[in-house]
Design goal:
This protein is of the alpha+beta class and 261 residues long. The chain has helices at residues 3-8, 14-28, 35-42, 46-58, 75-105, 147-153, 158-167, 181-194, 236-242, 244-257; strands spanning 62-64, 71-73, 108-115, 118-125, 140-142, 197-200, 208-215, 221-229. A hairpin with a 2-residue loop joins strand 3 (108-115) and strand 4.
Amino acid sequence: MNGTQAERGRYYVEALGRGLAVLDCFIADPGPHALVELSRQVGLGMPTTLRLIRTLEEAGFIRQDVATKRYRLSWKMLQLQDLTASILDYADLARPHLQDLAADLDEATGMAVLDGLEVRHAIRVSSNRIISANIPPGALFPAHATAMGKVLLADLDEATVRHLAERHPLVRFTDKTVRSVEELLSQLPEVARQGYAVSDAEWETDLRSVAAPVRSRDGRVVAAVCAVSVRPNMTVDTMEQQYLPAVVRTANAISQALGFC
C-alpha cells in the first residue's frame, strides 16, 4: 500500500473516489469538457476516464452534447444544487408563516419541495408551534400519494411526469392511492386549475392533507404548503371548507416573500 492510499483510510472506495474526481472537474470549471481534458485533469488513462464518464452519464449526473461530444453536468446535478439551497432558504423564510398556520388550525403544517417523484420536507411544524423532531428537514415522502406532491407535480408537463414515473414506479400504500401514472395524470390538470390538492388517506390510513403552491418570482411552483390531520373523524370536505383558505393565504404570503406578485 502506498502512502496516498494509507492516508485515505481503510474504508475509502477507489472507484467511487475516481468518479467523484471527474465531478470535481465540473465544479472547478462547468465546461463543457472533452474526454481528453477530463482524462488529463483526473490523471487517469482515456479508457478508464471514459468508463467513469459513461457510468456517471447512465446514472444521470453527466450529459453529452451530441454535436460536440463534450460533457456537462446534467439537470439532475443542477437540481440537487437548487434543491439543497431551496430547502435551507425556504425553511427559514417560511417558518413563522407555518407556525402561525399551525396555531390557527391546531394541526400540523409543513412545506416541501419536489425531488423526482418524491417530496422532500423543508420544514414541519406541529400544532403546538414546535418543529417536529421525527420528520427532519430532507425527509422524503411519495409525491403521488400526498397533497403537497400533487401540487408540485401539477406544475410539470405530462412528459416530465411520465419520465419521473418511469424512473420511480408508483407504489400503492392504501386502497385509495393512485394506481397508475394515467390515473395520476388525470388528476393533475384539476389540481393546477383549482390551485390546491387534497390527499384522502392515500399515503396512510386516517391521514388527510390539503396543500397549496408556493411560487417564485417568475411564477414557477417551487414548494408546497400543507395542513395535515390524523383525526379519525376528519374528512377532506371539512378540510377544504375549514383549512384550505388559511393554507392558501399562507402559501401566498410565502410566495410574496419570495418576490411573486
